[in-house]
Amino acid sequence: MSLHLNPLHAELAVEVSGINLRKPLGKETLAELQSALARYPVLVFHDQDLSDDEHAVFTKSFGPIDPGLALASKRKQRLKNTDVIDLANIDADGNVLAADNARNVSLIANQLWHSDSSFKQPRAQYSVLCGIDLPGEGGETEFADQRAAYDALPDTTKTRIEGLVAEHWAFHSRNMLGGGDFTPEGMAMLPPVDWPIVDTIPESGRKTLFIGVHTREIRGLPTAEARMLLLDLLEHATQREFVYRHVWRNHDVVMWDNRCTLHRGRPYDLTKLRELRRCTTEYLAA
Ligand code: OGA
Ligand code: MN
User: Labelling 24: which of 8, 103, 157, 192 has CA 20 to 30 A away?
Assistant: First the structure.
């Protein structure tokens, strides 16, 4: 099979056609997708109406599944397939959640720039997000190219951050938003982890920033200095020139490399249904 690639934003995002994600991937197609991802870390597919099982099978072609925050959540799973993370703003009966429902904290936390599971060891490699039912207005998803952001840093900053290690904590963002629906025991299962601020992607050899809203300390720096540096880097790394904004159509699938992109959802009317589902793979080489 030969995929057709139609670039959407610089070397960040590309629309991929000529593939049906419901079908098992042959070796050749998998290799083509992997080489597309090495160049463009955000792939967009249209008209892919995947079942949860098909979604999980496709994702597992790229590595073992990362269960994300499921470990720490006391919420009853709505979906049968536990490989699939439910991102719908609805309760078990299918009703849209009240705006002040504690679960909305986690969904709104996705509107802060982040890399999935950067707070875990292992962290995430690829995420595959299926858009099922999107509100007519708002609720887009943005992606920021952290390789381009790194390349554009002044040399003095590159020198300053080389070798620095940041602490990532899952609940930093939730605390910022007023707390979520996690128990102390659940939170204890996800202690903070450390990752270098500058990383190299093996497939492309490109250097990348690795930051985002889960970072709360830098080893060896006072908290205030660390947080200011992290905020400055984040501001730099999410300038519009580095950002692709995905405007969803139902049955779009967007796949991205969490090692070298940040992403965030955009606000929407919380009384409207917004249903997406995500599967993510673990980065075992890290
Ligand atoms: C995610 C995520 C953003 C969105 O699925 O990991 O951050 O737009 N989603 O819902
Ligand atoms: Mn995310």
Answer: 8
Distance of alpha carbon 72 from alpha carbon 177, whole angstroms: 18
Residue found by looking up tokens 């990383």 in the block: 199
Residue 280 near residue 68, CB atoms below 8 Å: yes
How much distance in Å is there from the Cα of 280 to the middle of ligand 1? 11
Query: Mean of the pLDDT values across residues 249-261?
Result: 98
Is any ligand 1 atom within 6 A of the Cβ of residue 130? no
- The pTM score is 0.97
Diameter over CA atoms, the chain? 54
For residues 14-26, give the mean pLDDT.
96
Ligand 1 binding pocket includes 88 (Cβ within 6 Å) = no
Domain range holding 37?
4-282
pLDDT of the residue at 74: 65
State the Cα–Cα distance between residues 207 and 184, nearest whole angstrom. 37
Q: Distance between CA 274 and CA 62 in Å, rounded?
A: 27
Environment of ion ligand 2 (residues, CB < 5 A):
116
SS3 at position 14: strand
Mapped onto helix, strand or coil, the DSSP state of residue 56 is: helix
Number of the ligand 1 atom closest to the C-alpha atom of 276: 10
Token pair in block for residue 131: 């858009």
Structurally, the chain folds into a number of domains equal to 1
Res. 286: pLDDT tops 70: no
Q: Ligand 1 centroid vs 131 CA: distance in angstroms?
A: 10
